[in-house]
Write a structure and sequence with these properties.
Blueprint (H helix, E strand, L loop, with lengths): L20 H9 L6 H25 L4 H4 L11 H17 L3 H11 L5 H18 L4 H9 L32 E2 L3 E2 H10 L4 E5 L7 E6 H14 L8 E3 L15 E2 L10 E3 L4 H11 L3 E6 L2 E7 H11 L11
Parallel strand pairs: 1-3, 5-6, 7-8
Antiparallel strand pairs: 2-5, 3-4, 8-9
Keywords: CBS domain, Chloride, Endosome, Ion transport, Membrane, Transmembrane, Transmembrane helix, Transport
Family: Belongs to the chloride channel (TC 2.A.49) family.
Subcellular location: Endosome membrane; Membrane
Length: 327
């Protein structure tokens, strides 16, 4: 390894010397910090400034009534570091709305058991003040601003609506996009995938019966077709796709068939059209579902996604459901 010599008083560069000034700045600024550490830093700085101010007041005005009883002249009775620690806890508590966990974190950072009481007072006071200003913490606000479909576990849904009131398609919507178990070719399935952006597709017996068979994910479908075209002989655009174990005998001149039974979810989560939405919302929260199929006597009627549930909750709260944007 060849080393370049430099003067003894020269400092090593934190970046390659061949980079430009703007690239230097970009390299120096790429430091992850998130929201947790900066909140504590801002609180600690503010608390430290307050502690230094109190220390100066106690030193030069020790005869004031507020200092006379417990701060003797020339004594070091104010600890700015304690103010910094309490300020960090207060700022972090107001930003994140943490209480008990925040006190435990601060105790683990400092190891001072005698500071538990001021930390508890700071955490509770900051939470009360922040809740008086707004009910959202900074992480809740970022979830809403980034458009993440998140269901709050603590909120209760008590409205008397049914799954058929929330499911899609509605009366004015186009019919639900489905795949059939034995009558679609590779070209037909690829056309459905390219024309839609859904994460999965219900599989039915036929478009006439709409009897539900299962659910297949979009990514599994794309990967399976691409793999079959490359590795399985005779798979062309006109090849039939079967989501069943057995395929009927075909004429010798017909192309090979593609069996995708292994990627089919035979037990997707379903509810009936008369299921109360209170139960559906509870199911989405506890099981972490992204979608739920709606059936009636085994016949597929529609689908409910987490975004549909959130829009329905907003509508029941007299909010505009179209104003909620999801990513």
């Amino acid at each position: 390894m060849l080393l370049r010599s430099r003067p003894d008083n020269a400092l090593p560069l934190p970046y390659p010397p061949s980079l430009g000034t703007q690239q230097h700045r970009a390299l120096l600024l790429q430091v992850p910090s998130g929201l947790f550490i900066p909140s504590m830093a801002v609180g600690a700085i503010t608390g430290r400034l307050l502690g230094v101010g109190m220390e100066q007041l106690a030193y030069y005005h020790h005869d004031w009534d507020i200092f006379k009883g417990w701060c003797s002249p020339g004594a070091d009775c104010i600890t700015p570091g304690l103010y910094a620690m309490v300020g960090a806890a207060a700022c972090l508590g107001g930003v994140t709305r943490m209480t008990v966990s925040l006190v435990v974190i601060m105790f683990e950072l400092t190891g001072g058991l005698e500071y538990i009481v001021p930390l508890m007072a700071a955490a509770m006071t900051s939470k009360w003040v922040a809740d008086a200003i707004g009910r959202e913490g900074i992480y809740d606000a970022h979830i809403r601003l980034n458009g993440y479909p998140f269901l709050e576990a603590k909120e209760e849904f008590s409205h008397k609506t049914l799954a058929m009131d929330v499911m899609r398609p509605r009366r004015s919507d186009p019919p639900l996009t489905v795949l059939t178990q034995d009558s679609m070719t590779v070209e037909d399935v690829e056309a459905v995938v390219s024309e839609t952006t859904y994460s999965g597709y219900p599989v039915v017996v036929s478009k006439e019966s709409q009897r539900l068979v299962g659910f297949v994910l979009r990514r599994d479908l794309i990967i399976s077709i691409e793999t079959a075209r490359k590795k399985q002989e005779g798979i062309v655009s006109s090849s039939l796709i079967y989501f069943t174990d057995h395929s009927p005998p075909l004429p010798p001149s017909s192309p090979s068939t593609l069996k995708l039974r292994n990627i089919l979810d035979l037990s997707p989560f379903t509810v009936t059209d008369q299921t109360p939405m209170e139960i559906v919302v509870d199911i989405f929260r506890k099981l972490g579902l992204r979608q739920c199929l709606v059936t009636h006597n085994g016949k597929l009627l529609g689908i409910i996604t987490k975004k549909d549930v959130l829009k329905h909750i907003a509508q029941m709260a007299n909010q505009d459901p179209d104003s909620i944007l999801f990513n």
